[in-house]
Amino acid sequence: MADYAHADTLVSTDWVNEHKNDPNVAIVEVDVDTEAYGQGHIPGAIGWNWQTQLCDTVQRDIISQADLEKLLGNSSIGNDTTIILYGDNNNWFAAWAFWQLKIYGHQDVRIMNGGRKKWLAENRELTTDAASPTPTTYTCSAPDNTLRAMRRQVEGAMGAGNAALVDVRSPDEFSGKILSPPGLPETCQRGGHIPGAANIPWAMACNEDGTFKPVDELNKIYEDKGVTADKDIIAYCRIGERSSHSWFVLKYLLGFPNVSNYDGSWTEWGNLVAAPVQRGS
Amino acid sequence: MSNAQDYQVDDRRINGVAVKITSYRLGDAYYCQVANADPGATIARADGATRRQAVDAAISKAVKQLSP
């Protein structure tokens, strides 16, 4: 992991096993499948539910500063705590949590390379007992909105020479052949992609065991599609979680300076009236 | 506390959709998750006293979820 631009944001399963009882380390599981935590998790790990705890549950938005402060405080996480995030699906929602924690300025947050899948495959220790953290106080920084792209920024990036839109969905979603992956409910009125976007599916960044590919391979994947460090890069997917995974790769593993995540993603763009849509590959 | 055992991932198609079926044992129970192969999101989940019970129950739920 030493070659990554910010190698300190990634830890191995071995590291977590050795440090899982450290008093200043908080391990947090965030899964796509919100029932997974209850079917075995790393001993001591806290579970966060992305559908109820990492978003505004009234209007569509990321978690508010006040709610994040409450969540972190109730999770026994202080401003100096090292937060280790992991989850299913090669860390989709672990990356989603990482992105929001960085927006609100948490200094030391890291992802467990390989996520839940690797921990299970290595036959490591699990428990079904929920953690019982002691509440503490947490104070967030003002949000860093440079990490987040809103619709108007995406509109401005279309066709701009110094910008790159990265659609990390599957080729069938990108082309418009399907509106959403099989079995998933959130959908849109129109299929296709934002004009000018490059299709680089999120999973291209992962090895079969769920870990991230080496830095030279990652660089080639993006360079081959014209996504380079000198550009203002906006990643998007369907609801913003897969793209937070690619955002993490681009910003923290490759070290590209200007990368944001468009969490409105296709469920916003594909429902807009009169928004330009491109179909096909 | 115990360790995950017998971790296994199998590929299959359900109603024409490629899925991955993950199962493992933890203590006295087997757990099974069915996810679409791409992008890998969970479609169904179940547990049981044996791997067969857990897998069959999860597949049964997935069939309903993926019915046209």
Model description:
The complex is a heterodimer of chains A (281) and B (68). Chain A is built from 9 helices and 12 strands. Chain A has helices at 13-19, 65-74, 88-103, 115-121, 151-157, 171-175, 215-223, 241-253, 265-269; strands at 10-11, 25-30, 46-48, 55-56, 61-62, 82-86, 109-112, 125-126, 163-167, 198-199, 232-236, 259-262. In chain A, the strands form 3 sheets. Chain A has a 5-stranded parallel β-sheet with strand order 1-7-6-2-3. A 4-stranded parallel β-sheet of chain A has the order 10-9-11-12. A two-stranded antiparallel sheet of chain A has the order 4-5. In chain A, strand 4 and strand 5 form a beta hairpin. In chain A, helix 3 packs across helix 8 (241-253). With 68 residues, chain B is of the alpha+beta class. Chain B has a 4-stranded antiparallel β-sheet with strand order 2-3-4-5, covered by helices on one side. In chain B, a hairpin with a 2-residue loop joins strand 3 and strand 4 (29-36). The radius of gyration of chain B is 12 Å and the shape is elongated. The model of chain B has no long low-confidence stretch (mean pLDDT 91). Classes of the chains: A alpha/beta (281), B alpha+beta (68).
State the gist of this model:
The complex is a heterodimer of chains A (281) and B (68). Chain A has 281 residues and is an alpha/beta fold.
What portion of residues of chain B is helical?
10-25%
The proportion of residues forming helix of chain A, as a percent range, comes to 25-40%
Distance between the termini of chain B: 41 Å
Shape of chain B: elongated
**Radius of gyration of chain B, taken over Cα atoms and rounded to an integer in Å:** 12 Å
Extended strand count of chain A: 12
Structural class from helices and strands of chain A?
alpha/beta
What strand line-up does the widest sheet of chain B have? 2-3-4-5
- Tally of DSSP β-strands of chain B: 5
With helices defined by DSSP (H or I, 4 residues minimum), what is the helix count of chain B?
Answer: 1
Oligomer: heterodimer
Trace the largest sheet of chain A across and list its strands: 1-7-6-2-3
Label the overall shape of chain A: globular
Model regions low in confidence, pLDDT < 50 over at least 5 residues of chain A:
none
Strand content of chain B: over 45%
Distance from N terminus to C terminus of chain A (CA atoms, Å) equals 33 Å
User: What's the overall average pLDDT of chain B, rounded?
Assistant: 91
Helix/strand structural class of chain B: alpha+beta
Mean pLDDT, all residues of chain A: 95
